[in-house]
Amino acid sequence: MTQDSDIREGEIQLDFNPADRAQEGVTFIGQIRSDWSRGNSPRNISQAREAGGGNARIELEPDYLAGLQGLDVGRPIWVLYWMDRGRRDLIVQVPRHSPDQRGVFSLRSPVRPNPIAMAAVIITSIDPETGVIRIDATDAFDRTPVVDIKPWMAGIDVPPGM
Amino acid sequence: MTQDSDIREGEIQLDFNPADRAQEGVTFIGQIRSDWSRGNSPRNISQAREAGGGNARIELEPDYLAGLQGLDVGRPIWVLYWMDRGRRDLIVQVPRHSPDQRGVFSLRSPVRPNPIAMAAVIITSIDPETGVIRIDATDAFDRTPVVDIKPWMAGIDVPPGM
Which of B29, B18, B133 has the alpha carbon at shortest distance from B71? Predict the structure, then answer.
């Protein structure tokens, strides 16, 4: 786990750990499999694509197989995953690539009160019997827990004027 | 709360409630305020925009105020929220607007194993002292719990080829 020594100058810590204030629970519906681990992972999904995608796939838990009905190859989806390797209490951060202090809500940092990440990806294969969904890329570490899959929809996922 | 009688013909229920299998906890960082309640809410955010937006704003919990640094009016953001009014155990659903059975992961239904929704919206005002962030629209009920705010970024939030 990360330590207080991981705090950079200018970063601000909450005086509590959000993990100690759980109000609802998430369950893991599967996991992301990838070639990435700490030390060899891309910084974001664009870099992951440039690096060939990372052999990215989702292994769905068998209990949830029926939920795949209606998903097909070529469909854009959201994968929501739980970034379980980091701390949750840095409310102001100093990104590695920038000297500025930034509030966590203006960053996509994995360090945040609720470490939920979202990746917009394309299904490249899907096996409804094993629950293995290959996707075009991921920047997530191998065995990152998945909490949701949803269809990506241009009409609602691109804000007005963008 | 919803009841088993809310299941429509063709819908399939898990034999457990995902809420009983919590592996990590989410904490609420604030709440969405809106004019919407059960019975008068739009079906999605496009409808909400057509209806004038719903007087949409986020009230951030005071503990998290410093996290707003770097967010400004006009910025597109994601609001992640917890759809706390529904059941979590319908793995196959029959949407009201369609006669077909659909797996939950091919739907944006609020009924899902982890009821996390995402809205891509524009900041229309922000008060760093009170933590009130006005946004252009929401389709969420008044007092829906918020679990995260992130910047929307075209480079990662639009999948390749879309």
Answer: B133
Q: Locate B143 and state its tokens.
A: 């007092």
Give the DSSP H or E segment for B48.
helix B45-50
Is A84 within 8 Å of B26 when comparing Cβ atoms? Answer: no
Residues 6+ apart with CB under 8 A from A20: none
| Identity of the amino acid at A139 | D
List Cβ neighbours of A4 (8 Å cut-off, separation of 6 or more): A13
d(CA B90, CA B19): 12
Cα end-to-end span (Å), chain B:
38
B44 touches B108 (CB < 8 A): yes
Radius of gyration of chain B (CA): 17
B70 CB near a chain A CB, below 8 Å? yes
- Distance separating alpha carbons of residues A127 and B93, to the nearest angstrom: 20
How many whole angstroms separate alpha carbon A35 and alpha carbon A45? Answer: 13
Predicted complex ipTM:
0.95
Residue of A nearest to B120 (CA): A159
Q: Taking chain A, what is the end-to-end CA distance rounded to the nearest angstrom?
A: 38
Rounded average pLDDT over A27-42: 95
User: Is A116 within 8 Å of A143 (Cβ atoms)?
Assistant: no
Collect all residues of chain B within an 8 Å Cβ-Cβ radius of residue A140.
Answer: none
What's the rounded Cα separation, in Å, for the pair A133 and A147?
A: 14
Segments of chain B with pLDDT less than 50: 1-2
In the DSSP assignment, the letter for residue B25 is: E
pTM: 0.95
